[in-house]
Specification:
Elements (H helix, E strand, L loop, with lengths): L12 E3 L8 E4 L14 E7 L4 E7 L9 H12 L9 H6 L9 E6 L10 E6 L2 E6 L2 E8 L2 H17 L22 H8 L2 H10 L3 E3 L7 H8 L16 H8 L5 H4 L9 H12 L4 H7 L1 E2 L2 E2 L2 H11 E4 L2 E4 L1 H4 L8 H17 L5 H8 L3 H9 L2 E4 L3 E4 L5 H6 L1 H26 L15 H5 L10 H16 L5 H11 L1
Parallel strand pairs: 1-7, 2-8
Antiparallel strand pairs: 3-4, 3-9, 4-5, 5-8, 6-7, 10-11, 12-13, 14-15
Helix pairs in contact: 9-11, 13-15, 13-17, 14-15
Protein name: DNA-directed RNA polymerase III subunit RPC5
Organism: Diatraea saccharalis
Pfam families: RPC5 (PF04801)
Length: 490
């Protein structure tokens, strides 16, 4: 508040608790604002206390110039059907929705009231005093057209009665499926109780209870309205409290169930490192040591290095989670391929300050989107040079712990050898199955008779004929030729 802004008036504020647990605000969202609610005639009121539902029957002026009697009679006829002249039948009168034979009322119903009303109150300003009363809930009343359901039900019942031939035909046998209820667990039972079907069933099972409606001009309504004024006028200003009590009123203590809960136990250094690196992707040794805590205080450098060797790896003095911790399930590529591709990228950064995304994509043979995601997790793009690490290398750590750097370099060389072996295994041609020397027997062979062993085929005869010709031309005698000459001599 500015210094030149004077206080014009001080208004005391009082809080009334007489109706704090029973005060509800009724809203009518679809009712025109120019219609005064005081002129409304409520013929009946009902409530469901457990589900906090309200129903009001508001009468209509059937003699008004704006009311159409023929339309009202038609709606009542469709809802209740044709009524006979037996006016003395009480049971039939009870089942009627519109008692007078025409639409003479509108039904207003509400859903479950809004109970998030801790910051709402009803206030009355009188005699320069402001009296406030907190409200229990806000109820929105909307028109209910349940008589349309009665019309549909009456039509369906009429159709069934017209089509029924129970006297002439016997009922057909129907297949019945018997199901036995399974034993529910507590989780399934709670989920079933919170379902829409279960809640609707509970609401329908609770009966309506008649309530008493009092007009705002009645004496009883005036007596209830007086309870909105506070009967105590003591000064309850918080400025008169001590500092500790004032802060306690502003910040109330936690609930009993939260106060009784034991404090959360610190995770082990290894689990803390895994959680931190999975979120940060890349960190220096000093920043990581500042975030890891134990019950005795900060973690020593030697203990931190021991824990890092089990769950992290080092690239140019920077620590990052192992690929096996990042990719644990197929989404959508197998974890083995994603881990190998990421390890190849990290190995390249141990050898070069910059890498080329196109060369990486050609080497790992993964979709470009996955390759880009892997590189972006540890690097950023420099238009002049290419992809470089997210943060500058930690030269101080490399100088202080050369043995750690040497051990990590051996680790990366082993991972790169595995990557190369995997690529060589993919490039090698697959082993072909050795063909059997045994000739396969086809269907034609099975159907045809087998040739005799001493029979000579046409190919064999032709081969022998060619051999004899060549032998005759060269002057050499064959067995066949000698036999033929001997035969001629005899």
């Amino acid at each position: 508040m500015e210094e030149d802004d004077p206080v014009v008036q001080e208004i005391p504020v009082f809080v009334s608790q007489a109706l704090a647990k029973n005060l509800y605000i009724y809203q009518y969202p679809v009712r025109p604002a120019n219609r005064d609610w005081k002129e409304v005639k409520v013929t009946n009121a009902s409530i469901k206390p457990k589900n906090q539902l309200v129903r009001l029957e508001v009468g209509l002026d059937t003699y008004s110039d704006q009311y159409c009697p023929s339309k009202g009679e038609q709606i009542a006829l469709n809802t209740d059907g044709q009524q006979e002249s037996s006016w003395h039948t009480k049971e039939k009168d009870k089942s009627q929705y519109f008692k007078t034979g025409m639409m003479d009322k509108i039904l207003y119903e509400c859903s479950k009231p809004s109970t998030e009303t801790r910051h709402y109150a009803v206030a009355i300003l009188q005699d320069k005093e402001l009296h406030c009363t907190s409200i229990q809930g806000i109820v929105q009343m909307r028109p209910s057209y349940s008589y349309y359901d009665r019309q549909d039900k009456r039509k369906s019942d009429k159709n069934k009665s017209d089509n029924s031939d129970d006297d002439e035909k016997e009922p057909e046998a129907q297949q019945v499926t018997v199901k036995f209820a399974r034993q529910e667990t507590d989780v399934v039972k709670k989920a079933r109780e919170k379902s829409f079907v279960s809640i609707s069933q509970k609401i329908n099972e609770e009966p309506w209870y008649d309530a008493m409606w009092k007009h705002s001009d009645t004496d009883q309504a005036e007596l209830e309205r007086l309870k909105l004024f506070s009967m105590t006028t003591s000064d309850g200003s918080s400025l008169s409290l001590k500092a500790r009590e004032y802060v306690r009123n502003l910040v109330p203590p936690p609930p009993d169930d939260e106060a009784d809960v034991a404090p959360t136990k610190l995770l082990s250094p290894r689990d803390q490192i895994k959680e931190i690196l999975l979120n940060a992707k890349l960190m220096t040794f000093s920043a990581l040591r500042a975030m890891v805590r134990t019950e005795d205080g900060p973690l020593s450098e030697l203990s931190l290095l021991t824990a890092l060797d089990t769950c992290a790896c080092c690239v140019r003095g920077l620590w990052t989670p192992r690929s096996s911790e990042l990719y644990t399930r197929a989404d959508p590529l197998p974890p083995r391929l994603m881990c190998a591709a990421r390890d190849h990228v990290l190995y390249l950064f141990t050898q070069h300050p910059y890498i080329d995304r196109r060369k990486v994509a050609a080497a790992v043979r993964l979709p470009p989107a996955d390759v880009l995601e892997i590189i972006r997790s540890v690097a950023k793009f420099n238009p002049k040079t290419g992809w470089e690490l997210l943060i500058p290398p930690d030269v101080a750590f490399e100088t202080k712990y050369p043995d750690v750097i040497q051990r990590q370099n051996l680790y990366w060389e082993a991972r790169q050898r595995q990557f190369n072996e995997m690529l060589m295994g993919e490039n090698m041609p697959k082993r072909q199955r050795k063909k059997s020397q045994r000739e396969s027997v086809s269907s034609d062979t099975m159907m045809s008779p087998k040739p005799r062993c001493n029979s000579v085929s046409e190919e064999d005869s032709e081969r022998k004929r060619q051999k004899n010709k060549s032998a005759t031309g060269s002057g050499k005698r064959t067995r066949n030729a000698s036999s033929s000459s001997t035969h001629d001599a005899t």
